[in-house]
From TrEMBL:
It holds the Pfam family Pkinase. Gene3D superfamilies: Phosphorylase Kinase, domain 1 (3.30.200.20), Transferase(Phosphotransferase) domain 1 (1.10.510.10). InterPro entries: Kinase-like_dom_sf, Prot_kinase_dom, Ser/Thr-specific_kinases, Ser/Thr_kinase_AS. Its EC number is 2.7.11.1. This is non-specific serine/threonine protein kinase. Residues 20-300 form the Protein kinase domain. CDD domains: STKc_16 (cd13986). Keywords: ATP-binding, Kinase, Nucleotide-binding, Serine/threonine-protein kinase, Transferase. It comes from the Eukaryota. The keyword Transferase applies. It catalyses: L-threonyl-[protein] + ATP = O-phospho-L-threonyl-[protein] + ADP + H(+); L-seryl-[protein] + ATP = O-phospho-L-seryl-[protein] + ADP + H(+).
Amino acid sequence: MGQALCMCSRGSITIDNKRYYFIQKLDEGGFSYVDLVEGVQDGRFYALKRILCHDREGRQEAQTEVEMHQMFDHPNILSLAAHTFVDRGGKSEAWLLLPFIRKGSLWSVLEKLRDKGSFMPERQILHILHGICSGLKTIHDRGFAHRDLKPTNVLLEEDDRPVLMDLGSMNRARIEVRGTREAMTIQDWAAQRCTISYRAPELFNVESHCIIDERTDIWSLGCVLYCMMMLEGPYDLIFQKGDSVALAVQNPVAIPQPCSYSEGLQMLLSSIMVSNPQERPDINWVLDQVQDLQSRSPDIQTNMV
C-alpha cells in the first residue's frame, strides 16, 4: 500500500506512487464522497471513494469494504484498482480507487425511462437480472451476503452488463441469532445499513432465536426486478408517504395489472418476493429460472422500446 498525498494545489493525488488528477465531484453520502479522477500514467478515469472514518470502528468497516472488493474477481462485481488510508488533521480517511462506469447506475437508467414515459424491454430486464444473479451467486458461494442490493448499487456498463457496488454492508451470509440482545443488535444494524424500501421482512423484526441468511438478498433482488418492470420500487411510495414499510412487506407483493410483461417474468417476481425467508428460493434456483426465461423470451420484446 503506497503513500497517499493530500489533494494539492494542482488538484492531484498519489496512491501507490501513481498520480491522479481531480476532475469533478460525482456523489456525496453521509460518510463518503466520490470524485472523478484521471490517471496521469494510463489516462483512464476512476471513481475515488473517500470514506470518513470517525473512529476505530469506522476504520475497521472501511478495511472490511476493501477486503470484500479484494475477495472477488468477477465481471459483475466492482473491482478495486487501488486503496490507501490517509490521516489528515487527526482524522482518518479510506481512499478506494474504483473503475469509473460512465453509464451510471441502474436507477439513473430507470429514471430516464420514466421521464420519457417509456419502459424497459423484457429481454433487457432478463439480461441485467442474469448479471446481477451471477454476481450474487459468486458472493453467496463464498459464504457472504451483500445486504444492500438496490438499483443505485448496480452500475451498468455500456453493454448493459450490471456491476454490483457498495460492498460496505457485506457480511457473513449466515448469522445465528441467540437471544433478544443479539436480535436487537442485528435489527439496529439493518436499520442503519440496509435501505428500508429494499430491506427483507426478517430484518425489520428480528426474532430472538433464528438464522438470518443470504436470502435477505433474494428479497432485495425481487425489489430490484419489480423496479425494472414498474420503474419504481414496490415500497418506494409507501416509504415516501410515511407509512409503515415493516407492515407492508408482510403481505404478498401486488403486481399492477394490466402488466405488459410475460407471465413467466411475473411468476418469477412472485416466487422471489416471499415474506417468509424459509420459503424463499436460493440464488441458484433464481438463476436457472432467468436462464429459462431468456431461452424462451420472444424476439418481439426487442421492439418494445
